[in-house]
Task: inverse folding
């Protein structure tokens, strides 16, 4: 009998795709925003994390191919702070990976040792940029190699939000926030960023040199990490992996709403990351100029709940619209987070304070 929550294309008694091992149990784990993940136990008893992916992303990215090949590239080059890739079942859009024992890093007491592990992984990613096969890696999702490209990306996101149809009181609050909060803040932050780039002699439309780019998970942080019983980290979720500007990786690590880092840890991470990419003479100036812009981008990402079609993606992964927070809708919760982030950036006058 099929277990509740089991993937539609296999069940206990079946052979695990691409491995031939007989499945004894299937359990839904995690509640990610994109894919469905299952703990699959086989006779033996070996355990695997089996990930069922949605269709191609808006940019045509095949999430299974990107993630599986990224993990295969990293594993083959000695990385062990990731799940071992086991098999890819392209017919069923499913990846089979090592099941990492442990607890989500966001539920653990994180310390400087964990921060050092994150920096070690970044250093390894930079090194692997010169490994055999790295030239065949894709660009990261929404990779931006110039400030102009980042501004264009943000403007497109904000235009979508400004055009969202009115579907109730929450949408009125969104329109007010966009016109009175996001719009003015974005304009001021853009002017400050352009002045900084000009003072540093960096044309806003000039792409950074290919030698300064780095392979990146493009959703890197403790929110996508598991603390193993021995205290070591395993980083997960490489659906957006590819070449990117290290400024984006640093900014996203500091800004991700699921992270809860102290200012001290943010400064330590920033200093460590800048040391890793020290050969990039312009990275400090680009980070100071572009970090507030990435904050605005994160505001737009938080507000995706208002975009038509976005709840359907959440529905595939099984994320509910009303979870916790007194039954507040996802839109209300995300709007509050977006307001807090804009208020914080405005309070700091768009300055980067973690050098």
Result:
């Amino acid at each position: 009998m099929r277990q509740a929550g089991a993937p539609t294309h296999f069940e206990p008694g079946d052979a695990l795709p691409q491995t031939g091992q007989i499945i004894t149990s299937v359990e839904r784990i995690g509640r990610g925003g994109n894919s469905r993940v299952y703990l699959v136990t086989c006779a033996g008893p070996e355990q695997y994390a089996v990930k069922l992916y949605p269709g191609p992303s808006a940019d045509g990215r095949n999430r299974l191919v990107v993630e599986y090949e990224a993990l295969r590239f990293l594993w083959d080059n000695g990385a062990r702070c990731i799940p071992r890739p086991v098999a890819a079942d392209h017919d069923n859009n499913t990846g089979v990976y090592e099941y990492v024992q442990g607890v989500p890093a966001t539920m653990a007491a994180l310390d400087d040792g964990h921060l050092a592990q994150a920096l070690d992984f970044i250093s390894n990613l930079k090194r692997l940029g010169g490994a055999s096969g790295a030239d065949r890696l894709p660009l990261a999702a929404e990779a931006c190699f110039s400030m102009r490209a980042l501004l264009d990306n943000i403007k497109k996101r904000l235009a979508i939000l400004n055009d969202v149809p009115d579907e109730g009181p929450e949408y009125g609050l969104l329109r007010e926030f966009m016109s009175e909060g996001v719009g003015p803040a974005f304009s001021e932050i853009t002017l400050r960023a352009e002045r900084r780039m000009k003072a540093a002699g960096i044309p806003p439309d000039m792409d950074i040199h290919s030698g300064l780019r780095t392979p990146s998970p493009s959703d890197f942080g403790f929110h996508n990490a598991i603390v193993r019983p021995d205290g070591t980290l395993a980083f997960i979720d490489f659906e957006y992996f590819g070449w990117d500007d290290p400024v984006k990786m640093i900014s996203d690590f500091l800004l991700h709403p699921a992270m809860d880092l102290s200012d001290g840890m943010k400064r330590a991470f920033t200093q460590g990351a800048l040391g890793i990419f020290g050969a990039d003479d312009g990275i400090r100036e680009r980070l100071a100029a572009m970090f507030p812009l990435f904050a605005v981008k994160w505001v737009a990402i938080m507000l995706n709940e208002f975009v038509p079609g976005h709840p359907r993606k959440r529905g595939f992964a099984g994320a509910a619209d009303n979870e916790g927070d007194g039954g507040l809708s996802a839109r209300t919760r995300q709007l509050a987070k977006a307001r807090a982030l804009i208020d914080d950036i405005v309070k700091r006058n768009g300055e980067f304070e973690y050098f």
User: Anything to note?
Assistant: The two ends are 57 Å apart (CA to CA).
